[in-house]
Write a structure and sequence with these properties.
126 residues, mainly alpha, 4 helices, 2 strands
Length: 126
């Protein structure tokens, strides 16, 4: 009996957390909106994530809807993880704004003795 009560207690706590987070997303709270803007997602995704979290929270508050709520909340979390990893991967793969080649020139007295070395920029170049 104690095990069942503790499982339902955790389920209700997760449901309440999901409801609060979904409400914050739907109301456009500053930190929630800033996170979506930083990832390049608009208010449509903010609305969809908030709605899904509220539905998952409501399902988690009901004993028989726990499985559906857990699956829905898992989908939201996996989607958030995928978008975050994709954003980080695209940022890492982006080309730096610095020049890609380093040029070294030594000018002597005449143009025939001029040496120019062009090589790819290395990570340790200053």
């Amino acid at each position: 009996m104690t095990k069942t009560i503790s499982i339902y207690g955790v389920q209700v706590a997760l449901g309440a957390i999901a409801l609060v987070a979904g409400y914050a997303k739907l109301s456009g709270a500053g930190p929630m909106a800033q996170q979506f803007q930083a990832l390049g997602l608009g208010y449509g995704f903010l609305f969809a994530a908030g709605t899904a979290e509220i539905l998952a929270g409501l399902c988690l508050l009901l004993p028989r809807g726990g499985i559906l709520g857990a699956v829905l909340l898992s989908c939201v979390m996996v989607g958030a993880l995928g978008v975050t990893i994709g954003h980080v991967a695209s940022t890492v793969a982006a080309h730096p704004h610095s020049p890609q080649f380093t040029a070294t020139a030594i000018a002597k007295q005449s143009p025939a003795e001029r040496i120019v070395i062009v090589r790819p920029r290395a990570a340790w170049d200053i």
